[in-house]
Amino acid sequence: MQTPDEIIHQPVRLKIMAALNTLSSGQWLEFVVLRSIVDTTDGNLGAHLATLEASDYVRIKKDFAGKKPRTRVNLSPKGREAFARYVAALHAILTPQNVAPEPSGS
Amino acid sequence: MLPSAEEAAQALRDIAAIKARAAGFQDYHAESGQLLLWGAAYFSGFTLTALFPGNILLVWILVVVAALVVGTGLARHTNPDIPGIAWRYLTLIASILLFCIMMNLVMWPLPAEQSAMIAPLFVATLYIIRGVQLRPRYLLIGLVLGVLSTVGFLFFQPIFWWWMALACGGTLMLSGLWLRQL
């Protein structure tokens, strides 16, 4: 059986990937919105985004909305494929032949 | 190392929860634009009605048509991935307008103040239903809109149109801003 992607498996990164995966390929999510969805701190989110960006799973764009600096995040095609594989691997773990039966007589 | 079945199940539950949460934020964001638009429309409509009470029909035809045009563009811009979004949007607004027209026909003749209560109370009810079924912020928006509109009708008749400009238009605009607060 395929081992789930260790980069995505970390809980905060899993939430980031799941949130970004709800968007279509051309859509970007603002950092502050993502932080609210994932429910974490700026520093924590930034650190995990850096890890995902280093793996080419997400793309980060920094620009200005008017005079306000804005950071936006988008799931790359590689990240979308990796997330799909990760979810498939989780489902595979839960298929009946892979789930160990409960010990009887307990 | 391979996660256990419990860990895998938990991860799938986390994914489902985040998916629902993200959908909620996107829904609120899309709705906020419409609330700001229709809040501004109600504010303009009721203010113009207070200023030109002899031209109520003309005022509201102009306001509704303008809001429809802008609203359709906004719906297209906010939800580009939903097929037929413009038609869905127009059908939704048309059904609300049709309801208001039918209520006027059924209860005719009725004073302008009574007639003006139909749309806000209907919209308030729709938001309450949506709030109960889907997302809690809509419930509060519906309640505030319904209560303030009714209070104005019952207790502030001398300043009814000005009251409604703030109670109805103001509530919708503030609600639109609130939905953008995360």
TrEMBL record, chain A:
Residues 12-93 form the Winged helix DNA-binding domain. Signal peptide: none annotated. Pfam families: HTH_34. This is Winged helix DNA-binding domain-containing protein. It comes from marine sediment metagenome. InterPro entries: WH-like_DNA-bd_sf (IPR036388), WH_DNA-bd_dom (IPR027395), WH_DNA-bd_sf (IPR036390).
UniProtKB/TrEMBL annotation, chain B:
The chain crosses the membrane at residues 58-75, 87-108, 114-131, 138-155, 161-179. Keywords: Membrane, Transmembrane, Transmembrane helix. This is Uncharacterized protein. The keyword Transmembrane helix applies.
